[in-house]
Amino acid sequence: MLNRLWLLLPILASINCLPYVYHMRERVLVGGIDVDSTLEIARTELEEGGFDATLTIWAIRDQFVSLENAKTISRLYFTHIDQVAAERDKTTAAFGVWHFSWAISNLYRNGDEGIKAELEDAYRDALRRPGGLTTFKDVAAEHVNGSRVYMGDFHAAARAYARSHIVAPGVKGYLQSLDEYRLNKTKEKTNGTIERRLQ
Asked: Does residue 154 lie within any of the structural domains?
């Protein structure tokens, strides 16, 4: 079912059914993000792999980051992009490459000269990634290489994901700490184990 939803996204975008799409950065900024903690979540998700592994970095692609954050993002990109692209399920691989490349593109294009310098190599790599896709190729090319910078959560599922993976203390609806994320992950794993035992 989830795979079918992601296949529908380009169609929904073409008929303007995506309510959280913006081209102005001030519309998407979240105040008070703890980027260091959020990047620790991104590292965890990338190491676990799976369909949504790249989405934490995608979720902060329009936010302000420090030079050190940009360096960390570049390192995470080069550590994981080939693994993401090699996912056994080709739809998962294409989805991950699309969103990871898109994240790097937005961070680079919205960044100042220092951020661009830190992300330069990752950005050059990200620009070529959509060309190697068979699924999502056109929409990925538009998001990564298009003349407009596509920002925002796009749809409700992505918004819910962002709010459960971005640490923004004091901002209602977002994680308040890295510990809250870890507690949620533990509960998720415990519930999954219980469900498997009941089957």
From this structure: yes
